[in-house]
Amino acid sequence: PPLLRLDEVTVRYGRKDALDAVDLDVAEHETVCVLGPSGSGKSTMLRVVAGLQRAASGRVRLAGRDQSGVPTHRRGVGLMFQDHQLFPQRDVGGNVAFGLRMRGAGRAEADRRVAELLDLVGLPGAQRRPVDSLSGGEQQRVALARALAPRPRLLMLDEPLGQLDRGLRERLVMELRELFARLGTTVLAVTHDQGEAFALADRVVVMEDGRIAQSGTPLEVWQQP
Ligand code: ADP
Ligand code: ADP
């Protein structure tokens, strides 16, 4: 089966369908970018996959397993949000180690993994730096390291580069793409930036008003009217 399958998933806020019977498959190792205007349901899609939001109907499956009733921390998903929400009172190492310690990793094991992750995201040796001393791009890297720490089977990014200036975004997008290819990570990312989606994705899904309006490779979506 695909790593992720949404089967006619509907999410309702009051009387409004934020997602309207959405079907979506994401294959193992694939990077899918969800594109669409504000309010089209992109964040809701991530929230329902993460188990932060209940589906009114339909099924979310991970590796073939129905996730209804499965709490967020047992779904094996990593999350990185727009405003990255680092813990300001912890240093870089403390931020990256957070999920590991929560999952019962010992100090030595967590330290090893944190060092490995900081190398991976291009911040070697940054363990003891206070997060408020970091630039925006560095904070994004820390948030990414934190999301990758528990080796999620699915990494979900919500406007991962949203706060950064254009030059930095373009550079980071290429770095992310290489990193995901190297790790074999499966990624579901949400953005309203077309250039970012096309640069990052194997497949682009365009949302409109709670429905999938288009889906295909970046080239296919680009060429559709
Ligand atoms: P996007 O991420 O594409 O901006 P969202 O998934 O945040 O879209 O929102 C989809 C729709 O659902 C919007 O109309 C939004 O206002 C509405 N919505 C999102 N979250 C809530 C909520 N907690 N309560 C009520 N309506 C919500
Ligand atoms: P973003 O645009 O960054 O995706 P939103 O402003 O849509 O964020 O949402 C911020 C928070 O408010 C989210 O938790 C979302 O679920 C909630 N939210 C969004 N729209 C509504 C709404 N119409 N009513 C209540 N809560 C909402």
Automatic annotation (TrEMBL):
<dbReference type="GO" id="GO:0005524">
    <property type="term" value="F:ATP binding"/>
</dbReference>
<protein>
    <recommendedName>
        <fullName>ABC-type quaternary amine transporter</fullName>
        <ecNumber>7.6.2.9</ecNumber>
    </recommendedName>
</protein>
<keyword id="KW-0067">ATP-binding</keyword>
<feature type="domain" description="ABC transporter">
    <location>
        <begin position="4"/>
        <end position="225"/>
    </location>
</feature>
<dbReference type="GO" id="GO:0015418">
    <property type="term" value="F:ABC-type quaternary ammonium compound transporting activity"/>
</dbReference>
<keyword id="KW-0813">Transport</keyword>
<dbReference type="GO" id="GO:0016887">
    <property type="term" value="F:ATP hydrolysis activity"/>
</dbReference>
<dbReference type="GO" id="GO:0043190">
    <property type="term" value="C:ATP-binding cassette (ABC) transporter complex"/>
</dbReference>
<keyword id="KW-0547">Nucleotide-binding</keyword>
